[in-house]
Fold each of these.
Amino acid sequence: MLDGEAAAAPAPEPSRAAAEEELVSALRRGEEAAFVELINRYQSVLKRVARIYVSSPAVVEEVVQETWLGVLQGIHRFEGRSSLKTWIFTILANRARTRGERESRSVPFSALVSEEASGSDAAVDPEQFRDAADQWPGHWRTPLRKWGSSPESQLLSAEAMSHLQKAIDALPQAQKLVVNLRDVKEWSAEEVCNVLHITETNQRVLLHRGRSKVRRALESYLKERSVK
Amino acid sequence: MTLPGDMDCDELVELITDYLEGKLAAFKRIRFEEHLAICPSCVEYLSQMKQTVKVLSSLRDAPPSREELAPLMAAFRGWKQQR
């Protein structure tokens, strides 16, 4: 299979498509700034996604480097039938799969996905809800503690951000990747499903479980702060 | 008193993402919104989940290091010369 031009890839929306076309032309003209822009945009995500296929950090680095070479070598053939992002990640998947056959992960990503998306993983500690013997089973035991009127400014402090990062780092691997792509990088559900080769339902379950854990971490952070 | 069709808080918290993604079936969305209309704690919970998503979108990765960029830029220059 040729690198890129994945079948049935989502077409980019018009305004974004124009900006992307400009970036592609600039890269074709050999403008270094365009290449740096792409690296800044995708380098960290490429590394995260490469880890789906290969385990060794050195091989991850190599696969990502090979992907950029593939981007440079193939940019003249890029026809814009898929978004640039989809095209770049298809190159990554092809390079990584070739390496992955030799350097494969001990637990395949698909196994992590089924494991992390199955069974029970309550969004909220069940202790916070009234039990079956109660007059109001399944309802909050006590009113949910409010985050206050301006929690966002508190949550955007450097201290809160480091808590947030820790909360993400602590997530199970597949949930972490989906939360990163969907909420941090603001990719669409469709893009995430295509790049990670997961079903829409699994994508949503992983997102839900990951996000819910992050909310709990922020809740305990705000609680600690208010006690201080 | 809880009517048979009513949604409980512990069910609602598990449907938040489906709701935010617009993936709840119509009848479930109605039950979801009816519950919100009478439950301030679940309104607060929904708001906290939305804020969580918003704060997550403000996180930024550190830019690639000089060591990481160097081989890529060398490859870029090589590619440019060869064209």
Note: The helical segments of chain B are 9-20, 26-38, 40-56, 66-82.
Amino acid sequence: MSTQQPILEARGLVKRFGHVVALDGADLELYPNEILAIIGDNGAGKSTLIKALSGALQPDEGEIRLDGERAHFHSPRDARRAGIETVYQDLAVAPSLDIASNIFLGREVRRRGPQGGLLRMLNKGAMRRDATRHFAELQIGVQSMTQPVENLSGGQRQGVAVARAATWAERLVIMDEPTAALGVKETGQVLDLIRRVRERGLPVILISHDMPNVFAIADRILIMRLGRRAAVVTPLTHSMPEAVAIMTGAAPEQP
Amino acid sequence: MNTTDTATADRPDRRPSVLDLTLRVLTAPTVGPLIALVLAMAFFSLKSDRFLDAQNLSLVLQQVMVVGVLAIGQTLVILTAGIDLSVGTVMALGQVVMTKLAVDNGVSPVLAIAVGILVCVGFGAVNGGLVTLLRLPAFIVTLGTLNIAFALTHIVSGDLTFSGLPSELLFFGRTFTIGHANFTYGVVFMLVLYAIAWFGLTQTAGGRHIYAVGDNPEAARLTGINTNRVLFSVYALAGLMSGMAALLLVARTELGDPNAGQTTENLDSITAVVLGGTSLFGGRGSIIGTLIGAVIVGVFRNGLTLIGVEVIYQYLVTGILVILAVSLDQLTHRRLA
């Protein structure tokens, strides 16, 4: 895998908040077709790293490369334009809008001709059909694209958020604790969904506290400690206790 | 996420059953207000045989048009989970500016109207600017501009009433007859504004974004919607609606009166929106509901007058009405959350 060019690469990212150093030279590589999990104790810099990669904040030092080319994200919009979509833990959907509207929120499709150009009319049919197709591809079952998201279960709502990310991501999807708000069964369903996103050819960066799930789903696991990469392990080479030991500093780092 | 149940997802255009349709009609957001309207009309027609008179019903519509237009702007603002307390006094300022310019300063009537409307849009823009740039609560900002507009109305007019208005300012007060009922062009204009608002809210991306910003502002921002622009626009549009309402008020009263439109119109516009089923928590509601809500307010005012209830009790009744409607909103919101 390491002979391939990474899709996303971060080198020596530093981010300071006053006297607090949240990122202290963090590195990361994401390769095609993999699920890379990021784990770490609270305050290890996971969230800050993810925010830097998704454009939510700008690192003070270091560089981010996409397919080998230097990238600068001044806002989440920049990252999105570069093909990076992010799924947040707190079910970032608009509950009173229907599923299709949520998938296309901020990227609505207009009708052709003067109806779309002059009157700016939405092409609701096309959006519904596209949303239906994406849901079928990801095997998310819902009764109708026109039901409001608030009528869905938590897992289904997160399914909508993941489907939206998978629909628009051209390079990769970042998922920040996507199962933190979910029950056991729903968590399993979202994990299945994450695998299917990878099967469609999109690499995934997954931040999670849930060790068993991380070991069940990840191809590689990046362990953060004190704002830096402590080690990169795989579920095949390391056990869960070994990973935890690196995470807490009980075992030596293996950068 | 029921992974075995993908069959239905493949057929988005499957024909809804009769039961589906019945449920959809009964739970549609505009049905509750419509039932309330029918009940109110039934009540007043029992109490007064003049109420259902075509002449009286067309009078109700004429009385409704000013509050109805203000309520359009109020709906847009409330859909974003905001509130605009200033729409009534901004309208009062707008009509004083229009009539004073046309009568006292000899400005051409069309220009006078344009300046009056622009003043209202300006107030809306100030509201929107303070809410978005300084992140001040809409309640306090618009309470402030309410008082500023109130003061300016009296300062600009010198507490004088302007009469003898040129015909352009009275156009929307002209009537045409269908059957035995007279309709003003103002009522038609109000309905056109409602049609435009309905189209914008339901058929365009901008409308979706208004709902999304009120529903979950953080999610809206993360999907790339410029939430500040949406918020600014709804307050500016509320200002524009105040300007339109000013024009209608002038046409109806044939006066520029500094005391007009300052007492009941603010609360009535909010009452209309809430009675129309739009949630004060944002993200839920419909413009058609607001139209029905505005008519309910008008029916109450007209009906109570017809059966000889003193004006002061009308305040009492609308006060109770709005609290009832808000309580209902709170209860449904809790059930959903």
Note: Strands of chain A lie at 8-17, 20-30, 35-40, 61-66, 69-71, 84-87, 172-176, 204-207, 220-225, 228-233.
